Structures are given as structure tokens and as C-alpha cells.
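note to self — DONT lose this again. spent like an hour looking for the file last time. sequence + predicted structure for the chain T wanted, 326 res
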Amino acid sequence: MPSIRAAEDLEIHYITAGHGEPVVCVHGNWGSSRWFTPLLERLPAGLQAHAIDLRGRGDTRGPDDDYSLPALARDLRAFLDAMGLASAHLVGHSLGAGVILQLALDAPQVVRSLLCLAPPWIEGMPHHDAVADYQRRMHEDRALLSGAVGMLFAVPPDPDYFAALIDDATRQRLTATLATVTALEDWRPGATLSTITAPRRVLSGTRDALITPEHAAACAAALGCPLDLLPDIGHALIPEAPPGQRWPGLAAGLGVISFTGPQGRGLMKGGHDDITANTMVCIEARQRCVVILSNDVRAEAAFPTLVEALLGPTGFAWQWEYPPRH
């Protein structure tokens, strides 16, 4: 599996799948890039996803002295820079959702969209005196660790896959474990999340007992975005989802493209996820625009015909994953 030197003292391990617009996935506490393998195995077409190991976890090698969310967000920014990505769609689970939200606050220009899975408490994780000691004991007792991670699943996972997740969890640095407790207690973005303007979405499982749907709803409300509740899913989310599960917010699409046609200069923006599709075409001189939305991605193939029926010949070379039907 590849690694990349993101800073002089930071080498980030990651796994990759697909081709197309960049997506970067960030796991939660006690996690690793392996938590995203079920998603990468059924990635929507038109996307290239990179799932990273955070510092102190998995095969990433780096500093062992700062596990605050701003520090982890800086690591994520360093990964984007090292990969030559000016921006990317970001997917974060639990702690990882906090990391991508922090990056959106610190460097909004590098964020194309945000998909927050079971995001952490936006007014700080509630403090309990026993948490740090319990986390320390999880380091020393694999059975205790397995039981604690297993409680994140509403439905028992595949045993071999779960064993691999626990193998990864046992490699988490003790410093990272203890510092993450404080980091989550201290992270309180609250109403500042309303300043994030990138397309954003929050997902939560209805059976999440760690970060309940009510906490996810508070995050979605602060972001001013939809909350999608997945029935009979716990905190683990991605490893729990059935093979046919569709993931709202994993959007593939074109950037804004300018073109010159028979009617002069125009602008086009299109995109889709694995459920919906949309396009907008504007003809500058005519001061006219057409916007088409569909709840079936397969309708994308008919968009060129519809646009030209409304606007006339545009001269735009339609760049669709699904071929146009003229």
C-alpha cells in the first residue's frame, strides 16, 4: 500500500480506488483506512478515493505530540498538497468528520464538498473521569478493545474483516488514544460551522449509541444541511451498510466549463451522485439559463437533447459518463 511524504516528519499511508474527481476519506478514533474499504469497493463511477491513516494510527509515521483536531486538519491539508490536489471532496467518519470540518473552517478553498458520517459533538465531548482510564485499558486488553469496538456495530460484522480492524486498532499509539479524549472534549466549533459554504451533508445511523442521531442533527443544523438517517445502522456506518447501500453526497461531476458556440460564449456545470443528476447551461449573450434536475442518474443521458430543445444549438461537446442520446 502506498505512502507519501506530506511533511519533513510526516509520512501518510493511504489506499486508493477508482478514477476521476478526488475524494479523501478520514477515519475515526481506533480506526484506520481499512474502515473505508467497503466504500472503496463500491465507489460510484467518476471518482477516485484515497483513504488515509491519521497520525498515530495504521501505517502512517509522524509526530507523536499533537493530536488536536486543528493539527490533524493540517496533516490532511499536507496530504492534499503532497498529492498535488488543489481541492477534494472530503468524507469523514466520527473523529474524521471533525477533522474535515476543521479543515473546511481553516482552509475552505481546498474543500469541494463534505460528507460527515456520525460527526463528533460540536460543543465538546462530554467529560467523564473514567474515560481516559478505560481507553488506556483497551490498549492492554485485546478482548476489551474488541468488545468496545464491536458495540459500535448494530449488526455483527464479518469476523475476518472485524479481526483486521482490531489488528489495526491495536497499533494505535497510546499517546494518540489519550490525547484524542482531550481533543474531542476541547473541540467546540458550534455556530462557526454555519460559515462553511461548501456542499455538505450529514449521515447517522438510527442505532448509533455513541454519537446519537440527536447529536448528528445538531451538527446538521449548525451546518444548515440535510441529515440522512440510515435505518438499523450503528456508529460504524460504512462497514455495516448492506452491499446495495447508496451514499448520498458522494458526488461526481464536472467543474464549471466555459465554451464558445453558435450563440457565443456559454457556461456549463453538471454533476451527479449515484442517485440524482443535474446540469446548468447558460448562454451569456442571450442572458438565458437552463437548469435540469433529476431523481434518476440515468436521465443524465437525455440532458443534452433537453437543453438544446430549450436553448437551441449550444456547440458544447457534452462530457457525460452516460453517452448523450441525440
